[in-house]
Each structure stands twice: as structure tokens, then as C-alpha cells.
Amino acid sequence: MAGGVYVSSGGGGNYEGQVTAFVIIACMVAAMGGLIFGYDIGISGGVTSMSEFLIKFFPSVYRKEISDGASQNPYCKFDSQMLQLFTSSLYLAALVASFFASVITRMFGRKLSMFIGGAVFLVGAILNGAATNLAMLIIGRVLLGVGVGFANQSVPVYLSEMAPPKIRGALNIGFQMAITIGILVANLVNYGTSKMKGGNGWRISLGLAAVPAIMMSVGSLFLPDTPNSLIERGQTDKAKKMLQKIRGTDAVDQEFQDLIEASDAAKQVEHPWRNIMQPRYRPQLVITCCIPCFQQLTGINVIMFYAPVLFKTLGFGDDASLMSAVITGLVNVLATIVSVVCVDRFGRRALLLQGGAQMLICQIAVGIVLGLTFGTSGQGSLSKGVADFVLFLICAYVAAFAWSWGPLGWLIPSEISPLEIRSAGQAINVSVNMLFTFVIAQAFLSMLCHMKFGLFFFFAAFVLIMTIFVYSLLPETRRVPIEEMNGVWKSHWFWGKYIPFDAPAVSVACSLAEACLINLLESLAGPIGTDSDG
């Protein structure tokens, strides 16, 4: 067969098909939804380090920045609740929007949510670029947040449903890849606009967010609906044709039947929000809450939001701080490629455990260097060699995050929930992620002022906790079809007790072995199950 066979690891059946160009292109277009999220993450930290922007909207912060160090601890020169609100308001809006997006995604499909997200983000980008006062700036940020909430709700689910199991991880990480590209582009834009004369470079930086918004909105119009979504909305004939198209074969009866059965089970559930609280869904609920929480408590957005501000605080000059942010953005993109290559080869757990260990070492090392150099007074300076070492440690930290908790923080929650609670589960994932993103963005500059170099030890402690959590409580989901996840939980040492006795409990390894054996016997003796003597 042209594309080979990929195996359902739940019941031992074979899902025939190939990895088609159609599904690859569809997933690449959908993953562009990550561009709007990434561009905003990268752009906000850059503009908040631009003097012209601070003078117009946050003059008190600018006065503290240019004051002499005798009266102001360098750790505290950017400490401003309003400046933090500029960054964090987006994520509070995204949190609320994700719940509305959950309903729209379930009732009208994933495409519409993507289009709404892009269109609202576009309006927010225009308002930000044209802002004349702080109120206009914050309203624009809120609209950007609504767009991010809709995109983050729909895109990961779309990717998980379109992709064949054996490359689901790689295709889903396309969303994270788009985020990292957005961050890198934003850092490059900030570096360029910071050198513009006239003091309006920040307007260009904020206004260019319209570009990824247009790409997402227009791209969503050409995307096909997922078979899961079509079945969920009663369009079974169209769903089967779509499944045949994305799998590149007409022999999709087994997979189609599994999708129908999953949809029928989902329709029995009238209240997904109430049902996800039931004990049988306890593994999905806990993982869906903990993974996005831990993702933010790695401290990554401290680097991504405030990289230029952080580097300026550490004594890098204006150009050097923006260029350092560009370097970390480039590392972010390249390391995400490592995850694309490795996630379906070595599994989710291996990447999370290795990434956690590397982040832990880097954060502790940065905290020690800054503590020895600046102490609690903030007085001191980094020599070129020490500054380069700090930049290396931060890049190593970013790389570890980019091939582990970055992409897998979106992939794992999107692939573990059955259809009947999938929209609710993804809404929880997005809302928890946005809640902790908001908290970190709103609190970081104040935390830096009060905790100083100890802030890095604070996040290192959480990295240790989350690495222990993964080792103990997160099962491997590599190459397991999302309709067949129940067996993974049933066979787990801890989560198995929450799964009903009549739920499938076939282990992934046994299912794969059984499927391979059936393939072998079919090739030798013809199809198994042929009636000969009744």
C-alpha cells in the first residue's frame, strides 16, 4: 500500500491510509493560528523597553529608568502595575473568551472559531497601532486576547483530529512552531523599529500584528472541517468523504466506525462541563489543569514577555537587549524543530523529563550568577564574559522549554480527552493556561523587584515539582489514536482506579503487538475472520 498502515492501539484494529499532502497542508494552514499568539508574546516585551512608548503611556516608568541608581534599585526600575496590565490584560480576556469559543467550536465547528479569532485579533491590532491614550491601548489588548482565546481553543483540537496517530505529535507541534516563529519575527521587528526616527516605531510593531491575523482569518476560510466535527454536527456522509480524502484511501470503514461510536457516546452526554467532573474523567481533568499550569510556572514567559526589559535590567544596552531577545527567539524556533522530529520517535515523557532537568540546571545557574554579581542591592555590572555566559544559560533554558513543555503543553491536553468532553477539556486547558499567563505577566516585574535574583530559584522549584509529576503521573500517549486513549488510563498504576471496570483496558504495547500479528497472518493466509464452516 502506498502510504503503509498506521495502527489503532486501542482495540487492535487497523486504520488504513497514508500521510497525504492534503492533511499536511491543512494542518500547516491551521497552525498559522499560533502566529498571532507568538507575535504578541514577542512584541509586547519589545515595545515596553522603547523609550518613546514609555514616555507616551508610562512616563513614571521612564523617569525611574533614567534616574540615577542611587535612589532606585535596578531590580525595581520597571516595576509598574499599569505597565504589567498592558501585557497581562490580553491573557485575562483570552481566559474568558475560551469558554465562549468552546461552545462555538462544538456547535459550529473548528473553522468558525479560527475565523472569529483572526478577525477580532485584527481589530485589536488596528486599535493598538493607532492608540492615542492608555484606555485605547488596553481595549486593543483585550480584543487581541479574545482572538488568542478563540485560536488557542480551536487550533490544537483541529490539528489533533486531522492528523493520523503516528504523526499527530509532529503535526500538532506545528502550532507551537508557529508561536515560536511569531516570537522571532516580533523580536526582529522590534529591533528594526527601535532604530526608526520620529518616535513611532512602536506603532509599526503593534500594528503589524494585523498581518498574522489576516493570514489566520483568510486561511481558515479554505480549511476543511475535521471528520470528528462533521460527525458531531450530524453530517456523516460528508464526514466519511472527508476522512477518505485526508487518509488518501477509500478503506476507512474501521476508523469511521470508531469515530461514529465515539460521537454516539458523546451525544449521550448532555452536560460536558458537569461530566468532566465525574470520577471516570478524573485523569483528563487533572492533566488538563496541571499541564498548562506547570507550563507557565516554568517561568518561560518571563523571558518571552520581558526579554528586552530583563536584559536591560541586567545591564545590557538598548540594542544589546533587543538583539539578545532576537537570539533567544531564534533558539526557540530551532529547538522546536527538535521536538517535531523527536516527539513521535521518543515519546512525550522523555522530552518532558529531559527538558525539565535542563531547565532546572539553567535556572539555578542564572540565579547563582546574578546573586553573586548583583546581590540584593542590584548594584554591580556584568563583564562581557559573564554576560555571554548568562545569555548562553538563558538560551539553553529556552531550548529545553521549546522541545518539551512548550509544544507538549498544548499537544498533551488536546489529545487525551474523549469527544464527549473534548471541547470542555480544551477550554479548561486554554483558560488555565491564560489564567497563569495573566498572573505571571501581571506579577513578574513586581516579583523581580521584591525577590530579585531569587526569582529564578522560585521558578526552578516549580520545574522540579512538575518533573516529578510527569515521572509519576503522566502516561505515554505516543501514537495512540485519540478515540482509543481509555486503555492508557486504565493500565496506569494510579489513574486505573478511576476508570470504570467495563472500559477498555488493553495496554498500548499489547494492542500494537496484536495488530502487527493480525497483519502478518493476513498476509500469509488471507483475511482473518473469513467464513468457511460457520
TrEMBL record:
<keyword id="KW-0813">Transport</keyword>
<feature type="transmembrane region" description="Helical">
    <location>
        <begin position="19"/>
        <end position="39"/>
    </location>
</feature>
<feature type="transmembrane region" description="Helical">
    <location>
        <begin position="350"/>
        <end position="374"/>
    </location>
</feature>
<feature type="transmembrane region" description="Helical">
    <location>
        <begin position="386"/>
        <end position="406"/>
    </location>
</feature>
<feature type="transmembrane region" description="Helical">
    <location>
        <begin position="427"/>
        <end position="447"/>
    </location>
</feature>
<feature type="transmembrane region" description="Helical">
    <location>
        <begin position="201"/>
        <end position="223"/>
    </location>
</feature>
<keyword id="KW-0472">Membrane</keyword>
<dbReference type="InterPro" id="IPR005828">
    <property type="entry name" value="MFS_sugar_transport-like"/>
</dbReference>
<dbReference type="InterPro" id="IPR036259">
    <property type="entry name" value="MFS_trans_sf"/>
</dbReference>
<dbReference type="InterPro" id="IPR044778">
    <property type="entry name" value="MFS_STP/MST-like_plant"/>
</dbReference>
<dbReference type="InterPro" id="IPR045262">
    <property type="entry name" value="STP/PLT_plant"/>
</dbReference>
<feature type="transmembrane region" description="Helical">
    <location>
        <begin position="453"/>
        <end position="474"/>
    </location>
</feature>
<dbReference type="InterPro" id="IPR005829">
    <property type="entry name" value="Sugar_transporter_CS"/>
</dbReference>
<keyword id="KW-0769">Symport</keyword>
<feature type="transmembrane region" description="Helical">
    <location>
        <begin position="112"/>
        <end position="131"/>
    </location>
</feature>
<feature type="domain" description="Major facilitator superfamily (MFS) profile">
    <location>
        <begin position="26"/>
        <end position="478"/>
    </location>
</feature>
<dbReference type="InterPro" id="IPR020846">
    <property type="entry name" value="MFS_dom"/>
</dbReference>
<keyword id="KW-0762">Sugar transport</keyword>
<feature type="transmembrane region" description="Helical">
    <location>
        <begin position="285"/>
        <end position="309"/>
    </location>
</feature>
<feature type="transmembrane region" description="Helical">
    <location>
        <begin position="83"/>
        <end position="105"/>
    </location>
</feature>
<dbReference type="GO" id="GO:0015293">
    <property type="term" value="F:symporter activity"/>
</dbReference>
<dbReference type="GO" id="GO:0016020">
    <property type="term" value="C:membrane"/>
</dbReference>
<keyword id="KW-1133">Transmembrane helix</keyword>
<dbReference type="InterPro" id="IPR003663">
    <property type="entry name" value="Sugar/inositol_transpt"/>
</dbReference>
<comment type="similarity">
    <text>Belongs to the major facilitator superfamily. Sugar transporter (TC 2.A.1.1) family.</text>
</comment>
<keyword id="KW-0812">Transmembrane</keyword>
<feature type="transmembrane region" description="Helical">
    <location>
        <begin position="171"/>
        <end position="189"/>
    </location>
</feature>
<dbReference type="Pfam" id="PF00083">
    <property type="entry name" value="Sugar_tr"/>
</dbReference>
<dbReference type="GO" id="GO:0015145">
    <property type="term" value="F:monosaccharide transmembrane transporter activity"/>
</dbReference>
<feature type="transmembrane region" description="Helical">
    <location>
        <begin position="137"/>
        <end position="159"/>
    </location>
</feature>
<protein>
    <submittedName>
        <fullName>Putative sugar transporter</fullName>
    </submittedName>
</protein>
<feature type="transmembrane region" description="Helical">
    <location>
        <begin position="321"/>
        <end position="343"/>
    </location>
</feature>
